[in-house]
Amino acid sequence: MRVAPLAIRLTRNLPFIFPEMREEMVSAFNDVIPQEYALEWQTISAADGITEIIGRLCNRVILGPHICREPAILALKRQLIKDKADFVLDILPEPLSVLIAGLRRRTKKLSQLLKPTIQLQQRVQKESPVGSHYRTSSDAQNTILSSLIAETSTPHTPYEITRNIIALNLQAVSTTSLAFTHALYHLAASNTHVVQPMREEIQAALRGEGWTLHALERMHRIDSFLKESMRLSGLHALTMHRESRKPYVFSGGTHIPTGAHLAAACASVHTDAARYASPETFDATRFVRAGSEGAPRYQLTTTGLDFLAWGHGRAACPGRFFAAAVMKMMLAYVVLEYDVRLSEGDAADGSGDVEARRPRDIWVGYERIPDLHAELLFRKRKGFR
Ligand code: HEM
Questions:
Q1: Which of the residues 41, 62, 117, 172 has an alpha carbon 20 to 30 A from that of 239?
Q2: Where are the domains of the chain?
Q3: Ligand 1: distance of its center to the CA of 125 in Å?
Q4: Where does heme bind (predicted)?
């Protein structure tokens, strides 16, 4: 089972699936932050709320509009993400074999739920095969599910198709949710001198064409904010895990024998004073100032020897273009539509250190997890719209 080709498919089809991503995001936000009280401050569990929204958005582009909101499917997908989180956090006392058995059970259950849709689409595609399943934005076949069904090169029972869908979900939802939760904590701890220029930039980018991928590309402050958040609160201290296939000697004389496990220490690269000025300070416009606005080298999705949050080189994260589009769209939406703060009594407008104010990260091995219990206050912006 290979997730990378599915991630690449999502990337290729971003222009077509973007309107659906936005529609599902708005609908999920409205469920997580009830609109009848939206003009009052509301307390939201950040990590749960974000995982719910990103889970729904991913479900929409993976499964399609008809089945993505079915309660039984949503509940199963939620449980799978929770199982993975519990495993990473080492909360469950069970050994790995019990977790794998649970995963098999849930895969079987989900494949039974998806079976009628899969079989129906298989029949339809047999009767009227089409060359591409990602042609227009209105194409009802714009999903990973339908492209998996259309594949003829590999055997694809409902169970096998479901396994691919689950693997993609597990890879995509938790990473993107955790990274966005980190960014949301940075936002809640930022003052209006940071937020106001972001609002102005978003409004300028939306003027004319509205919410499109192209408009997102012009939101350089949003891009920089997320990149700075990933620099300081990247999900891993180590990345680019590799095993050497033959002996190698680095120019400094370090000898690597065959079979040695290697990784890049990205957290220390990201806080290296030789690479970043005031490396411990959260500087929302660091990457806007670093080059001319939008220069590719400083963009969120660009990897390099000084930015390793997506890995680097041939095996760099193939899902980063999708993840970046999701996070940029969500951050721009939150910044434009809501005031966000940490909690009553927190002076979001005071000067001060964003890193010191935001909820504390926790480390599990070399994984950096945002505070999963922290709550944020959200309020719809008065007079906006
Ligand atoms: C903010 C969210 C994400 C972060 C921080 C992230 C980070 C990473 C990192 C550090 C790697 C290892 C790269 C290397 O070894 O050089 C990786 C690999 C991978 N990621 Fe992501 N990722 C994210 C979202 C996604 C999404 C949304 C998808 C799918 C749509 C995805 C699919 C993959 C796959 C398939 C690999 C393995 C690539 C391979 O081994 O060839 N990731 N990711």
A1: 62
A2: 4-380
A3: 31
A4: 317
